[in-house]
Amino acid sequence: MELSVYLAGEIHSSWREDIKQLVNEANLSITCYGPMENHDRSDHIGEEILGEQPTAILKDEAASSINNLRTQILLEKSDVVIALFGESYKQWNTAMDASTAIAKGKPLILIRPETLHHALKELSNKAQVVVETPEQAVAALSYIFEEE
Amino acid sequence: MELSVYLAGEIHSSWREDIKQLVNEANLSITCYGPMENHDRSDHIGEEILGEQPTAILKDEAASSINNLRTQILLEKSDVVIALFGESYKQWNTAMDASTAIAKGKPLILIRPETLHHALKELSNKAQVVVETPEQAVAALSYIFEEE
Amino acid sequence: MELSVYLAGEIHSSWREDIKQLVNEANLSITCYGPMENHDRSDHIGEEILGEQPTAILKDEAASSINNLRTQILLEKSDVVIALFGESYKQWNTAMDASTAIAKGKPLILIRPETLHHALKELSNKAQVVVETPEQAVAALSYIFEEE
Amino acid sequence: MELSVYLAGEIHSSWREDIKQLVNEANLSITCYGPMENHDRSDHIGEEILGEQPTAILKDEAASSINNLRTQILLEKSDVVIALFGESYKQWNTAMDASTAIAKGKPLILIRPETLHHALKELSNKAQVVVETPEQAVAALSYIFEEE
Amino acid sequence: MELSVYLAGEIHSSWREDIKQLVNEANLSITCYGPMENHDRSDHIGEEILGEQPTAILKDEAASSINNLRTQILLEKSDVVIALFGESYKQWNTAMDASTAIAKGKPLILIRPETLHHALKELSNKAQVVVETPEQAVAALSYIFEEE
Amino acid sequence: MELSVYLAGEIHSSWREDIKQLVNEANLSITCYGPMENHDRSDHIGEEILGEQPTAILKDEAASSINNLRTQILLEKSDVVIALFGESYKQWNTAMDASTAIAKGKPLILIRPETLHHALKELSNKAQVVVETPEQAVAALSYIFEEE
Amino acid sequence: MELSVYLAGEIHSSWREDIKQLVNEANLSITCYGPMENHDRSDHIGEEILGEQPTAILKDEAASSINNLRTQILLEKSDVVIALFGESYKQWNTAMDASTAIAKGKPLILIRPETLHHALKELSNKAQVVVETPEQAVAALSYIFEEE
Amino acid sequence: MELSVYLAGEIHSSWREDIKQLVNEANLSITCYGPMENHDRSDHIGEEILGEQPTAILKDEAASSINNLRTQILLEKSDVVIALFGESYKQWNTAMDASTAIAKGKPLILIRPETLHHALKELSNKAQVVVETPEQAVAALSYIFEEE
Q: Name one Pfam family in it (chains A, B, C, D, E, F, G, H) (predicted).
């Protein structure tokens, strides 16, 4: 069996590398997808493809149209979504990807520090699994492959 | 024609009353739904129905299970969703309701101050209409009813 | 606003009457649907319509084809499903109706005594709300209608 | 042609091994999925991943969130579901998996002793095929591969 | 509660009138839809609207485009479909309407003489209820409205 | 029975008034929806609600976001779509509305002069009915209401 | 590119072999599925798996439950359905498979002699392509693979 | 990861070859599908398979039934659709394919000269990405494959 997993969430730490390394160590047949992790490239991709934009909002709109193209296609190819929330940033696109997954019937594994639980309580309630660390998320994925 | 609108977003200001008053002034056949706006009742509804919970997280989980029941039913009954983002709070449940609407094929009208655009750029790109004030949102709704 | 609720579960106690009375007392605009509560009629409806059947299994099959017709139509008309599990009987049709509701995107309110939780743990995890009494279920429904 | 089959039902007997052996003997290109069959691991997986839980119900909830993650993903990957009911246990999760399959348009093969037919009559009526033994279930699968 | 029923099948006998009269006698809140029962009008409606057609096949194609418009809209508005098969005619459009209902998740009540069972065995197996007379079909509908 | 019809197509002639008058004359219970027919208002609605835009393309984008909001909501409320193509204009939004209806399972009645058939041949092939005049379109709608 | 095609229709002539041979000669990457073509095995499969049945109707019901299992799974795996109607037999299961394909959004190629057109006019109108011979059906499939 | 892309639009220039060459140069695992690009073959395919037709409209109808068969199957197999509009031709089938993709949840990349923006404004608003050249479209696709 092979699984595809979309890794939604912030692109300022190395948590996706942690997930991928844990997946490799556990020898799981899992393909990981995710957003562009180079923050500058993600913010500038709109202007790089479409040319300079007249305002900051239009620069953002151009970039998000390309980023959402990527997300929509990769999320559609995934069997399960892992979304990580951290202490910093608004992370509304993380909430968007997580909610889109749920609405499309793809199970969500939510990773967040316990301190954020109150603000995330409605999303946590809709997630299939709520954990605190990438190790726990991969342990849940690993369990899917286990045979007695 | 009658429309039903779900008003997603923070419950600390009177923006929903503004919307309803504007709808009334414009004589639009619109029914507005929304979350429980009494913040204390929203936070405590879980324990009120299910009894005291052993931890803060479980109190939150109990409350969110009831709040999500309400949201799921009212959002399903709506033709369009208006989501308002403000300067304060995490507002991840607002992002969740807005994204759920989009994923279910219900158009989203997003109200946010321009200062928040960068953080909301992916969600803005998926919204059908992006405005800054409740007046603009109601103007868009009003346009649906107009006949030459 | 009007809600329709399907009341799945055993037909040997008066719990549906309790729900309806509580709904009336709370003045909620709720229509309650449910299975045939006359146990004999439910078991014999197949032969009453289709004539005597050669074996007990065929009598059951005839009855269940009519009962499932009723359930499919009434459940489709409902916004939310309440399923009650008790100490007696196999109650597999209750589990079937509850699961069908979830799979069709209709939220489930599960009523069960705490003693049954272990056997119901997978279904409880998928339910939107889990309670122990009809009063709690109606309190959750009532909350959907509340405006501050 | 290759088929994937989810084997829903109790994990206290070796019926899944019987199915897999029969599939092998018949040289059918069938991949079998199913729940964790190690009963202790299934009951404890929540605490193993999420840590010790304060109550038995929360331990169950933690376990079922992981078990349902597994089931949702594997059932989604399956073309057909076989559900086996036996004389013991409540088996409400078996009824849930079987009903979820039907509601998602995946055909169900139901295996049950004739003595259980009355209690299973509504689910039997919705199943595509109802049999008494794993041999019969595999014979039905084998027929799909046959060419004259 | 109100139900809408589409009555698929031949238009050469008065079986739809029988159904409607039985519904009236039983005081059921049921709206009956169905195809154009004037056979000539049904066959000629294409040319009446679109003008004379160069060949018999094109006359048929013109008529069926209008008849299918009617069927698609009325079937979509129905909660349940009754399909009657008789001894005469090919009745392939009856089989089409019945199968479309099933594929769209609307339950089918099939009326046919027992002598036709072998030829109808695959469709019977997919129908929710199989009966021999309009009286039995209405008895099944009536059961949906019954309260103890 | 009541039908709702969305009237897609150009807003430079009075064809919608013709349809509505024919519907009235035939006493059909039909509600007609359609786009803003005041061409100036349709082109300027974006700037009227969102304020002056820096470029012509952005003015168009603002207008189309409001126009598409209207179309999406009204088309969703419709049972059937009539799309009229004329000799002038690109009419790509007419093609878009017509195709959206088909993809959502709503039948399309296409009105076009025979001279346009070649350019419309793929869309004609997907339409349920193809006619040349509003009279013919209303005749097809009228047929849905006819009882012998 | 690879296509899967379900070949619905009578099992008394060799038309499926003709299709497969034409596909081979044209070197098309097409996998053909279809029903059990051994008529006796198809009629007796229910009793072979489930044991002797008390009546002819129950024997038919047993057989059709297995045959429908096969059809549902193979049709789900197909990109397109070819349905052939001939002069003999009721062929209601052919009409059922053809209509199921259409309702599920899979295109239908209908093969029938022109003499049957009147009786098939509603189904023809819903088919994507209507032809008279297997050669024409394969020519249509072949066109999908063509590159200039 | 592998992507499939349907290239909708006119068949009078070599833009599809440009796309394919750019994809090859960028070493992207992308399979491109599209309509028959031989204009004569596309217009005559109906008569080639179905025989001479009595009128020009019927010749068109025959051709479009085969062309739509091809498009429906190839579009269903695609993850994303690129639609190119040029200065010439009505291009209503391009608008149809583009809108069908959007309605089915497949993201659309729209290529058009800026001069056409006003006429395409509603479709542009629904597209995920709007560009002016094939190079920009492939740059957007390439971004989906990028890993930091």
A: Nuc_deoxyri_tr3
Q: What is the ipTM of this complex?
A: 0.96
Global pTM?
0.98
* A68 vs B93, B119, B125: nearest CB: B125
Domain assignment of residue C58, yes or no: no
**pLDDT tens, F83-117?**
999 999 999 999 999 999 999 999 999 999 999 99
Min Cα–Cα distance to chain C from E62, Å? 35
DSSP string, chain D: --EEEEEEE-SSSSHHHHHHHHHHHTT--EEEE-----HHHHHHHHHHHH---SSHHHHHHHHHHHHHHHHHHHHHT-SEEEEE--SSS--HHHHHHHHHHHHTT--EEEE--GGGTTTTHHHHHHSSEEESSHHHHHHHHHHHH---
Closest chain D residue to the Cα of B54, Cα to Cα: D54
- Domain extent, residue E13, equals 3-35+79-145
- The predicted pLDDT at position B5 comes to 98
Mark yes or no for CB contact C140/B72 under 8 Å. Answer: no
Q: C38 to each of C43, C45, C58, C60, G94, how far by Cα in Å?
A: 9, 10, 20, 16, 41
User: How much is the pLDDT for F72?
Assistant: 98
The mean of the pLDDT values for chain H is: 97
* Residue G11 lies inside a defined structural domain of this protein: yes
Does residue G49 lie in a domain region?
A: no
Q: Which chains does H contact via 3+ CB–CB distances below 8 A?
A: A, E, F, G
Note whether A93 contacts B61, CB cutoff 8 Å.
no
Per-residue pLDDT at G148 exceeds 80: no
Task: State the CATH number of the domain containing residue H132.
Answer: 3.40.50.450
Contacts of H58 in chain E (CB under 8 A): 58
pLDDT digits (tens, 9 = 90+) for F35-81: 999 999 999 999 999 999 999 999 999 999 999 999 999 999 999 99
**Position B114 in a domain:** yes
Best G37, G44, G64, G65 residue to mutate vs chain D (most D CBs within 10 Å): G65
Q: Cβ separation of C50 and E136 shorter than 8 Å?
A: yes
Chain H CB contacts of E54 under 8 Å are 54-55
